[in-house]
Design a protein that fits this description.
The protein is 25% helix and 26% strand. By secondary structure, the protein is of the alpha+beta class. A hairpin with a 2-residue loop joins strand 6 and strand 7. It binds one DNA strand through residues 9-10, 12-13, 34, 36, 60-62, 107-109, 115, 147, 164-166, 199, 201-206, 213, 215, 242, 244-245.
Length: 254
DNA sequence: ATGGCTTCATAGTGAAGA
């Protein structure tokens, strides 16, 4: 099973890139974030014609998540149970016996912002829910845009970013609490190129200068870690005309 | 330098992203 996560930054704009990438990469499951698309406008027909079943939870302008899968997604869950949230950031489904949890973690804006407090509360609720979810689904994968660079290796200028949003200690602590549930960042299970990132600012020619952050992740529970044979970041879509600022992260299970 | 770009939104004196 080949699974992937990609923050497409507008599914409407990125649909041609996505369709090309599905054709080339042939993933079995794809988690999308920032679809920015209301459910009534979701391009289900185009994606079904490409060979995927689709489940989605979107809203106008912001957020929005979806799971695409070559086999039927079952037991679909939208949002974090018991956590009131108008923002569409979570969708989960079972695909081929694996619980797929697709998340778009809040950005937080800045560490002195209300949105930062919301981010930390949101991560706490996610962690609490997943601790329960793991008892029901031992084979669980948490894929998405975490908006957290967990380690100084995961960004281009650790000194310049120190204490900033996406790298602050409380955000990293929240990431480590997710790992504390028994989940592993599968990218780090394998040898990786130095300066591997999944997001680059549109400005400052950041991609060309590789001024990026690794904030999109795939965390796997122990039974899936045992099956995982590879994890990589596909930079190719970031080189296209009018790219998303994020690029896909891929994990392969035997 | 609180910008630089891109999106969606509206027609802003924009908002938000990361």
């Amino acid at each position: 099973m080949k699974m992937a996560t990609w923050n497409v930054n507008s599914l409407k704009v990125r649909l041609p890139h996505l369709l090309d990438w599905l054709q080339a990469a042939q993933p079995d499951v794809v988690c999308l974030q920032e679809t920015k698309t209301e459910d009534k406008n979701f391009p289900a027909t185009e994606l079904e014609q490409a060979g995927y079943r689709v489940v989605f939870s979107g809203q106008k302008t912001y957020n929005g998540v979806a799971i695409l899968a070559k086999s039927e997604p079952l037991d679909v869950q939208i949002g974090i149970p018991g956590f009131e949230d108008e923002q569409r950031r979570v969708i989960a489904a079972t695909v081929c016996g694996v619980r797929i949890v697709c998340v778009y973690v809040p950005n937080g804006q800045s560490v002195d912002s209300d949105k930062y407090q919301y981010k930390l509360r949101w991560l706490e609720a996610l962690t609490h829910w997943l601790s329960d979810e793991l008892t029901r689904y031992p084979e669980l994968a948490l894929l998405g845009d975490y908006n957290i660079a967990p380690d100084d290796r995961d960004l281009y200028d650790p000194e310049g970013w120190a204490g900033n949003i996406l790298v602050s200690e409380p955000e990293r602590a929240a990431f480590f609490r997710l790992e504390g549930l028994g989940l592993k960042d599968c990218f780090r299970l394998f040898e990786q190129p130095e300066k591997s990132y999944s997001w680059w600012d549109y400005r400052m020619m950041a991609f060309r200068r590789n001024m990026g952050l690794r904030i999109d992740h795939i965390l796997l529970s122990a039974p899936l870690v045992a099956r995982c044979t590879a994890c990589s970041i596909d930079r190719a879509p970031r080189k296209l005309e009018r790219p998303s600022d994020h690029t896909p992260v891929i994990a392969e299970l035997g």
